[in-house]
Design a protein that fits this description.
12 helices; alpha/beta; four-stranded antiparallel beta sheet; elongated
Length: about 400
């Protein structure tokens, strides 16, 4: 038997005073009075437990705001954009509404079935995060793969400011096999934003030639501008985590758009997303500020201005049957004339930036030159002669 039935029986059957019953059963006199009144009016149903929820709530979110929250959630999800509580709150504020707390927004979304419970995740406090202190202190860059409507594979080159998460540029290309795509875009970004102090990338061949024991065009460009180059550890994409995470955000948006039929159509989609991402989308890592706000809030970092390390290289090779050697500089292959008389000779090539010395295995100097990066072939300077005897005399004079 429930306590409520015992109390009602003591009052109505035994005829005991309500105050005495309340004292004996350690309950309030008001509860006893309310319970007896309910039983007299409703019978047995009056003894059932009732909700203690208040009939009115002054802080309850009004129906108009709740409806707008749900509408924004649907619109942002359909557009492939971030649709979290903080983003919804930012959009409400821009629309002239006073946004409720993010926890209240999450409760509304959960009640409406927009939130799927997930397993417990690793706590954020366990991560070691790094962010540059100033804009232009470090730019992160990388390619990501995409395809056009007809399944033509394309690549998108992105540059992201490490401090502000500003999307400096996103440019679509057909499959990239060389460095001009990177160097051209980097030059354009420097014109718009100024040179960064450093650049962080993975070890792709368009970014670095160190695993081929050389220096590509992008490395040469950075060195000429006194910009420090940083490369992630092989098979460790977490080092470039910001640009990797951005690729997820970008593809989530592109998946919601009509597939681009041409490279120009894709570039237009990238430009529109860049404007939204930089100027409208509140960023979680920036306390919900936009990347543009964070980028313009502090002074910009600049290159150190100190001369960077020189490039040295030692290579062994053989002079080919046409009397030439090949040498790659800044990602471009150059041919160096040595002389037909030395065809097949094993040599060592000593490289110091653009200064090159070619010697035999015995130490004899065959040629010394300063490489002209604008020319594919570096001639010996010997004049051609119509007679074999004159040719041999002239060639020997220039090659020894």
């Amino acid at each position: 038997m429930s306590l409520a039935r015992v109390v009602v029986t003591a009052v109505l059957v035994e005829g005991r005073p309500k105050a005495e019953v309340a004292r004996d059963y350690h309950v309030s006199r008001r509860w006893v009075q309310t319970l007896v009144a309910r039983y007299l009016n409703e019978g047995e149903a009056g003894l059932n437990p009732r909700s203690r929820r208040p009939h009115t709530s002054p802080t309850r979110i009004d129906d108009h705001t709740e409806t707008r929250i749900v509408e924004l959630r649907k619109q942002l999800l359909d557009a492939g954009l971030d649709a979290g509580a903080h983003t919804i709150a930012a959009h409400l504020a821009r629309n002239g509404l006073i946004p409720p707390s993010t926890s209240a927004i999450w409760r509304i979304l959960s009640r409406r079935g927009f939130v799927t419970p997930q397993p417990r995740k690793r706590p954020k406090s366990s991560y070691t995060r790094f962010a540059a202190d100033q804009p232009n202190e470090t730019w992160q860059t990388d390619f990501t793969h995409w395809q056009l409507a007809d399944a033509t594979p394309v690549e998108i080159l992105n540059f992201l400011d490490d401090h502000s998460r500003l999307l400096l540029g996103a440019r679509a290309h057909h499959t990239v096999t060389g460095g001009p795509a990177v160097t051209t875009m980097f030059t354009d970004l420097i014109t718009e934003y100024g040179p960064p102090a450093s650049v962080l990338s993975d070890n792709g061949a368009v970014f670095t030639g160190r695993y081929r024991h050389g220096r590509n065009a992008f490395q040469t460009q950075l060195r000429d501008l006194s910009i420090t180059q940083k490369n992630s550890r092989p098979y460790h994409p977490q080092t470039c985590g910001k640009i990797e995470r951005f690729h997820q955000t970008l593809k989530k948006r592109l998946n919601k758009l009509p597939p681009a039929t041409t490279l120009a159509d894709l570039q237009q989609q990238l430009d529109e997303f860049r404007d939204y991402y930089n100027n409208q989308r509140p960023h979680r890592a920036l306390n919900r500020a936009t990347p543009t706000t964070a980028y313009t809030a502090r002074p910009k970092a600049t290159p150190t201005g100190s001369p960077l390390a020189h490039h040295y290289r030692l290579r062994t090779d053989h002079v080919d049957n046409l009397g030439k050697l090949t040498l790659r500089h800044a990602g471009k292959l150059h041919h160096i004339g040595i002389g037909i008389t030395h065809a097949g000779t094993p040599v060592r090539i000593l490289v110091h930036d653009l200064h090159i010395r070619v010697i035999t295995t015995d130490g004899e100097l065959l040629r010394e030159l300063t490489l002209d990066p604008t020319r594919d072939y570096q001639p010996t300077g010997a004049r051609k002669s119509r007679t074999p005897q004159a040719k041999e005399t002239t060639q020997g004079a220039y090659d020894v």
